[in-house]
Write a structure and sequence with these properties.
Helix content is about 65%, strand content about 0%. The protein is elongated, with a radius of gyration of 18 Å. Keywords: Membrane, Transmembrane, Transmembrane helix.
Length: about 170
């Protein structure tokens, strides 16, 4: 599909490192590209044509989904070398297996903080998957969700994890 060769590859380049900053402007461009590829006018009967059905039908990751996927894949690869709550104290808490988030000003601006925060919200069964299974499970989940924001992903994740058994 021409969308992937002309737009998605450029959008995805180093997305982990620019992460979630200024992502809304990229998302607007992505929706324009999707509309152009599928021959939809931006406005139909005075209303904006929604791209969400196109993202779902054609299995296209939104820029938010791509940023989430790439960031979580990086955190998953690094997870064995990142400190856990259990390394800090010996208390047997429910968060003992979660990755510890550093609390300094440098980390506040880092993509790692957002990535670790999202990673810690994943169900333990998903965090414990091998890399290939983790990637395919997460990608399929994101393709079926087509999130329009980080908050939509987090909200759906909370509903999915607490509303159903995983």
């Amino acid at each position: 599909m021409s969308y992937h060769s002309y737009f998605h590859s450029l959008m995805s380049y180093a997305i982990v490192f620019w992460g979630f900053t200024n992502i809304e402007s990229i998302f607007i461009l992505q929706k324009r590209a999707v509309r152009a590829v599928f021959g939809l006018w931006h406005w139909s009967n005075g209303r904006s044509v929604s791209c969400k059905p196109l993202f779902l039908q054609h299995k296209i990751l939104t820029v938010y989904a791509q940023a989430i996927l790439d960031t979580l894949l990086l955190i998953h690869k690094l997870s064995s070398s990142l400190p856990r709550h259990r390394n800090v104290h010996q208390h047997d808490t429910r968060n003992r297996n979660q990755i510890l988030i550093s609390r300094n000003m440098l980390m506040d601006k880092s993509f790692l903080k957002q990535g670790i925060t999202l990673y810690n919200k994943l169900p333990p069964a998903v965090r414990e998957m091998r890399e290939e299974m983790f990637k395919s499970t997460l990608k399929e989940y994101l393709l079926n969700l087509a999130p329009y924001s980080i908050e939509e992903f987090q909200g759906d994740l909370v509903t999915h994890v607490h509303g159903q058994s995983t």
